Amino acid sequence: MSIFSRMVLPFLVVSGSAVANEETTATLAPFTTKAPAGSTLKVALTVTPPEGWHTYYLDPGEMGLPVSLEWKDLPDGITAGSLAFPLPHRVSTGDLATQGYEDPTHFVAELKLSEEVATGPVTLAATASWLACDNDACVPGSQDLTLDFEVIPAGETAPKVSSEMSQILLNVPIDAGSKWQSELTSNESDWQLILTPPADWTWPPANSLDLFSETPDFLAPGHQPIIENKDKKLVITAPKSEYADEKASPALVLFGPQPPLRFTPEISAKSGE
Amino acid sequence: MRTLALAAFAAVASLATPILAKEAPAFTLKDLDGKEHSLADFKGKTVVLEWVNFGCPFVKKHYHKSGNMPELQETYTEKDVVWLSIATGKTAESISSSEAEKAGSKATAILLDPSGETGKAYDAKTTPHMIIITEEGEIAYDGAIDSNSSSKAEDIDSADKYFADALDAVLEGEEVATAKTKPYGCSVKY
User: Fold this and answer.
1) Which of 3.40.50, 2.60.40, 3.30.1330, 1.10.1060 would CATH assign to domain A174-263?
2) Residue B120: enclosing H or E segment and its boundaries?
3) CA–CA min distance A88, chain B (Å)
């Protein structure tokens, strides 16, 4: 290799990757290619930002917009549920504390099929939207996507979900349910969430747990909460967002368990009162 | 008569104090032509500070895509408001008059804050980030231009006009109903 080509090659590589990395991309895939009428079909939305860029969580932090998915002209008998978000990372955008995803990330959408929905092949259209930022720039993006699957008669068995897709489901939250007790209080600066798990819950190490709020501007972004095991309860202390609504019931997600657990506690009287 | 006088006093008291009631930090910054402007120069006038970066899609939403910001600038500077757009940090090194002209800016001046000192003094987080300073030099509003944090210009009309409502209240001598909101946009590049 000549000196010239040694000098030029790295430049070409950097230049090429910069061009390839300009755009965030998205794909849609059903968890099963067939779904019975009367069931719920889960759909994976995978969003891949360019290297060095990130997209945003439901609570994006001091700035940002969450990834979203909008279905177009859904046929009779099919309704869309909300988009489920996996564990975000605490990333900074410039000097601002934000929460999002630097890597290819699988979000999970739901389509509810009524008992009366027409059977046969279906092609649905949707638009995925996001804001992608690095430390110097932000680019809002969107991509039109299609989803193909077949509605089979009610009562027929859907194909088995692949192990790869099953793993995706283990990463998005479910409602914790009535076996858990949750209590949310606050003082001037912090929220305190006390969770009482069911007796048969397998306790993971406290340092493997994390808490995020799906309600924007509830927790101060960029702060790792303090999570302690006390008397068979999880005591979680996290600083408040300066914009927190002290009256609205938030959706808080405990990450660590698979799947993560969502709590929607009412806010009780202030701690120590 | 006495009751009337008391009522009048109470009304004035409730109008006189902005909720934030924080003294606006002093600054002296050069504009795009190299002319210095100090906040102290505008004592006795209502001053708007607007953090700007014409490359940011959220700034473009309110300039290039809608003309919303230039319209607000025109409306309020005609009412004797001083409107200072501020480019902080790396943006101060790249912003130009031609960029401002292309965006349709009708600000009183576009000021350069390359050190970020003024941005940090006001805790400017995003572009745009709006501050309203009263004739008395107090911060009456700090936050977003409106309630819809999307980057789409078509969302402007249906948004709550936090900033314009606050500025109208200040000019009318009324209390600002929502004095602090979360600004949205691109991060200020300190």
Assistant:
1) 2.60.40
2) helix B117-121
3) 19
